[in-house]
Structures are given as structure tokens and as C-alpha cells.
């Protein structure tokens, strides 16, 4: 797996490629998230558009990043979730954890951060 990292107007976008099964690929994502969290990143988007499968260990990373960022008042958004992965999110209640921070497309996720800045809200 590879992990694409880009920054768009202060928003960091992580795009994992392949499968998040709990091995090296999941460790790569988790380590980058820890690095960003430790550096005080406030706006993170995890784009799952190139992710084909997520195991329970991958789901755990997504739960932990939300909890860690929320504790600091920062936000994580997830976008471009494949229908099969979306069904797993529903089963494990990840959709309830992320709520309005789940977006169909990367552009929607980025726009939601930009709109929050314009309105003074931290959505």
C-alpha cells in the first residue's frame, strides 16, 4: 500500500491505497496520523476512495483518530467510502461516530471545512 499525503489550504488529506488489513499499510496510516496529531493538525481528511478493504484493525485506527482529534477540538472527516466499506461502517456504528463528518467526495469534505471557517463554526 502507499499513502498519498497532500495539503490543501491548511487541510491535510491522507489517501491510503489498497487494503487496510492491520499490517504495514495500516501502520503507515496510523504513524502519519500520530505525527499530524502530535504536531497539532486541526483539519484532517481521510480519503478512502483508493481503499478497497478495511479490517477491524483499520477500523480501530479510524475510531482512534476521531477520538484523539475530538479531544483537542480538532476535526477529522472521511470521504469517498466504497459501498462495501460503507456497509461495514454502518455495522460497527462508525457512521454514528463520524456523523456529519462523512462525505461522498473529497471536494465536499474540503468544502465543509471551508464553510465552517466562513461561518465561524468548527464543523
Compact description:
This protein has five helices and seven strands. By secondary structure, the chain is of the alpha/beta class.
* Percentage beta strand: 25-35%
Q: Assign a percent range to the helix content.
A: 40-55%
What integer value in Å does the Rg equal? 13 Å
CATH architecture: 2-Layer Sandwich
Strand order of the largest sheet: 1-2-4-6-7
The total count of helices amounts to: 5
CATH fold call:
Transcription Regulator spoIIAA
Global morphology: globular
Largest sheet: 5 strands, mixed
User: What is the β-strand count?
Assistant: 7
N-C termini distance: 30 Å
Number of domains in the coordinates? 1
CATH superfamily: STAS domain
Instruction: Give start-end ranges of low-pLDDT stretches.
Output: none
**Mean of pLDDT:** 93
